[in-house]
Amino acid sequence: MNEAEARAVAAVDAGRAVETLAALVRIPSVTGSEEAIQGELAARLVALGAAVERLNPDPVAFERDDPDWPGAEMPRTSLPIVVGRYGRAGGRRILLVGHVDIVPPGERSTWSHDPWAAEIVGDRLFGRGACDMKGGVTSILEALAALGAGGALESLEGELVVAFVPSEEDGGQGMLAAIRAGVTGDMAIITEPTSLDVVVAHAGALTFRLTVPGRAAHASVRRLGVSALDKLAYLARALEADERRRNAAEKDPLMTVLGLPYPTIIGIVRGGDWASTVMDRVVADGRYGVKLGQSWRDAETDLRDAIEEACDGDEFLREHRPTIELVGGKFSSARVPSDHPLPIGLAAAVEAVTGRRPALLGKPYGADMRLLVNEGATPTVIFGPGDVSAAHSADEFVPLGEVVDCARVLAAWVLRELAAP
Fold first, then answer.
1. Cβ neighbours for 86, distance < 8 A, ≥ 6 positions apart
2. CATH no. for residue 273?
3. Which residues, in sequence order, are CB contacts of 234 under 8 Å at separation 6+?
4. Second label for 241, Cα 20 to 30 Å away, from 31, 38, 331, 351?
5. Which of 298, 331, 364 is the C-terminal boundary of a domain?
6. Strands of 204-213's sheet, edge to edge?
């Protein structure tokens, strides 16, 4: 590191970062209810010297008017976006991005810690959203504080844009709306949890609804009926076979190392209205993997083809076709070449700050990265504190040391990309 980078890294304050993270975790910001945390983050960016812009597009109009609307799984009446800017517009621009929405805490009895209390045990801070991804949001804020302490933010060659967006968990409406408002750049980092490795590629996913018909009959003569539940089981086996084929066909080492990069599941089943009547209709909601290199539309075609082929092989379903709808988030895949200057430069910054060379990875989940890459033409990687295995879980936590190290890396990387010569 040069002298300016070393000063910025040294200015990262671990105690301040912990206080910031705890304050953010104590604000419930479940998807669809992000107004309070966005108000807090806007105020913090103002205090850190940013030129702050607050956007609030109409989610109903956005869904109606944008052909690439990425779906939703929670009702919402607002779409609050906070953007902070530093430096000078018109030149090179880099982005630091985080989402502020979190999933619900679930059954409270499964938690050992209050999901909203931000309890600290050793190096871990517990709470819903601590890992996914308020730890990463905190790292961005602390990096800004460290850069500001030495005056580095006032002398940037180019522009640093910070974007905090809602609605990542259920599709990415917030990120796409920010992109439509001009939040794009030459490079971007999203501080989702990666254990401080660098994610250069990710798969995607569709949320689908399968409505399967049957024929009702009295239980005492059930053979006169056709159980929709039995037909769903038949289709589920067909989807399992499709899952095996699609995963076996993958040859990219970034994805094959994951074992099952493109999983399919059925997560919700509803059907029947009387215990002694053969089911004549079952509705199942599930998740279908989007392969690396595919858009969500490509994967939708694969899904429909798999169901149609299965129906062709069943006497009842040939004449009584199920329906398939997309009912939630639509996550395409995305990647940045491993030899692109973004992952190479970020990996060098990680090694300079921490002494550890990070791995360049592919992941099986969908993320806002694909919107910046595919819709915003912005090369993007994911790099942040915490392990995704802790995300969405009871006793979710983030290691505090990683939050601090992430802030240090971001501060050094920003200076490497935008510092005056």
1. 49, 50, 51, 144, 153, 156, 159, 160, 161, 162
2. 3.30.70.360
3. 310, 314, 317
4. 331
5. 331
6. 264-271, 281-290, 204-213, 323-331
Both 327 and 215 in a single domain? yes
Out of 282, 310, 331, pick the residue that ends a domain: 331
Distance CA 222, CA 242 (A): 30
CB atoms closer than 10 angstroms to residue 323: 11
pLDDT digits (tens, 9 = 90+) for 291-333: 999 999 999 999 999 999 999 999 999 999 999 999 999 999 9
Whether the full predicted model's pTM is greater than 0.85, yes or no, is yes
Residue 168, amino acid: E
- Sign of the dihedral through C-alpha 334, 337, 341, 345: positive
Q: Do 300 and 414 belong together in one domain?
A: no
